[in-house]
Amino acid sequence: MTLLVQKFGGSSVSDVDAIRRVAQRVVATRESGASVAVVVSAMGDTTDDLLDLASQVSPNGPAERELDMLLTAGERISMALLAMAISDLGTPARSFTGQQAGMRTDSSHGRARLLDVTPARVAKALQRGEVAIVAGFQGVSDEEDITTLGRGGSDTTAVALAAALNADVCEIYTDVDGLYTADPRIVPSASRVTRITIEETLEMAAHGAKILHLRAVEYARRFGVPLHVRSSFSDQEGTWILVDRPLTGAQTPGPTTRHTPHSATDPRPSEDPMEDPIISGIAHDRSLAKVTVVGIPDRPGGASQVIGAVATAGVNIDMIVQNVSTSPDGLSDISFTLPEVDGAAAVAALRELQHDLGMADVLYTSHVGKLSLIGAGLRSNPAVAQRMFTALAEAGINIEMISTSEIRISVITDQDVLEDAVRAVHSAFRLDAEAEAVIYGGTGR
Amino acid sequence: MTLLVQKFGGSSVSDVDAIRRVAQRVVATRESGASVAVVVSAMGDTTDDLLDLASQVSPNGPAERELDMLLTAGERISMALLAMAISDLGTPARSFTGQQAGMRTDSSHGRARLLDVTPARVAKALQRGEVAIVAGFQGVSDEEDITTLGRGGSDTTAVALAAALNADVCEIYTDVDGLYTADPRIVPSASRVTRITIEETLEMAAHGAKILHLRAVEYARRFGVPLHVRSSFSDQEGTWILVDRPLTGAQTPGPTTRHTPHSATDPRPSEDPMEDPIISGIAHDRSLAKVTVVGIPDRPGGASQVIGAVATAGVNIDMIVQNVSTSPDGLSDISFTLPEVDGAAAVAALRELQHDLGMADVLYTSHVGKLSLIGAGLRSNPAVAQRMFTALAEAGINIEMISTSEIRISVITDQDVLEDAVRAVHSAFRLDAEAEAVIYGGTGR
């Protein structure tokens, strides 16, 4: 029997009416003959309301363990209500906390990592023909303390559950109907992507697309879980994110059965294996800042010391760029981007070591923009990069940094011109809605 | 070191300010040198709000298991916020769900019974000097399903925790400052009781006093837990409910150390062991209905069949009265009171068996009133009953049924005259506030 995991975010269960709509959708899926496990987030503003209460009772900042205890009440409410609503329609349903669903994590409160997923109770409920509702975002540590998975947590729960149950697909329901070739609020002509590879989605998520969290995409890639991102407000198909094969060593069944429809209720697209798109789409990110360390003696270990100092300060680094030294004094510069919230810590750490490392200066720019062009065609086609840089030049946009990977070209620009840059590149690659076989784009949700 | 369990009900944690006030009280207790475990209910109207959501998503009535999952979110929120508020004042605090606190129950959702209480994690937290906050009302079944204890659940949690931890006292904080000789809303001159025995409190709770739930009092009696009922809005002492000795077989340390103050922070009253009051107080109950089965053949087994039929229908019976048969045809009547909500079910069950059991008729009166006079003096003093009946007669109140125990006399009256009856008896026994050594009275909370 086909097994689906359906994940509904907070906006899909924002109130009683929304919960009843989701219940109807789940029941319709179940009645089509598929087994259904549902992962649900907290209702609408619940999490924000709870955070507000927490800051009121603890002006000095709430204890992390207690904050996890508090916030997990949110999914407890939404999942119990959804189970009731489904049962009320005559379909048996049962809700499970992260702990009951076997979501074992480390004990890093607020940002716990999954260590083991053993959803035996969920599997049993499915075998009995029940709809299993699992709380997103939460788990339990070895010390039996309640943990939360941090940002992107509910998507990660859904993908992890789909992997552990060997589900045929993990459907991510959201308030938009899929991935777009660029953020439709910036590029109104952006088109919806029908299929994309997981690697391209990974680059999208890593470089600013917000519709799916990077961590959930990484998990899906690792365990070979096909994703289907679609709207909870319509029945039309969204974007299929397909995996060729799980990474070696991932403990999930091989991919051989994943691309052959095997039942009338098979939820996967019936067309042929996906074609190779030239360009997937454009992601952008405005949460970054930039640091340039000037005048590092050009000798082995220089970059390591700079990045090491920043890493020791607990700062996550995004892109790193260092060019070959061409200066007569043998000094080079190294630049990196990082989350803007970490900017002050990184600069402080570097200034402390400025003398020891022999750096001339540390320059800091808050609020840079990053544009990333993503697609399978990039690795074999230098004309893509040329067309991208030309489009930006013609739009009068200065490129401050460039970084590339096999399937991505990223540029750093002034944040004020980022939206112009997205539109210029989108247009240059003819990613408008009339075009076919063209992919991606995140909304700012 | 002295160990206190402090229980705060929903009205004591109704909002952020109330939670911060409770936090200050807990911290003050902790700083006086005592160890403190706190049991907390859901905030103010949370439970009602959640029940409202449940009825909206499931018009056919919510599934019991899911209702427990939903409602337990309430204490999760209040306990996490209280732990944060206490930590914010510089005192380490840690919250525990019913499961984490070792509250093992049977799997009767909505009305689970405690099977085992093993608060190892709570004890460890206390040993570390932390304040332990435990969710009231909730537990976990052998199947690891979340359960709730039903009415009086948080009081029961507090008493059970106090017993398992061998606490010196279980303080029940509420919105009134103790037990009164009668409901102050009916008898404005009612006086606050300073001490009362657990047996008298048990009769009070069983016969309509609402300040402490019967079940919690039973648990306290069984395990020899001293209770102190007091106001969360003042520092003055409330009512001490003292236990001479736990029942045989209860697994709690003997009572020998319970009445000897053994430290400067000993929370117990410093006076001599309690004196024997003549009359404890007056309880009343207006939630009952009355059934009279007329014309039962006066032979062995008649009462058993009647009560058996009702019990089989799942109805709890309150008082049962059957007088000796004096009728020439050898028929007798049997009357019993029961919760009014169960009235229809009981009558239906009896009517079904009316012919088989040879009953002439089944009479039903909804909304009767019950007045109970409670005190240690009753067992040895028939004049007490006489004075009570005389007072009622002088007030023109008809007595429909009478039932007595060693320390209680209950009468059933028309519900319309119940308050007059309470005032008449209160006055007849001079229980007004001027009197000393006089006990009890529940508010309608």
TrEMBL record, chains A, B:
Domain of life: Bacteria
Domain ACT, chain residue ranges per copy: 291-367, 373-445
CDD domains membership: AAK_AKii-LysC-BS, ACT_AKii-LysC-BS-like_1, ACT_AKii-LysC-BS-like_2
Catalyses which reaction(s): L-aspartate + ATP = 4-phospho-L-aspartate + ADP
Enzyme Commission number, as recorded: 2.7.2.4
The family this protein is said to belong to: Belongs to the aspartokinase family.
Name this polypeptide is given: Aspartokinase
Species annotation: Ornithinimicrobium cryptoxanthini
Lineage: Bacteria, Bacillati, Actinomycetota, Actinomycetes, Micrococcales
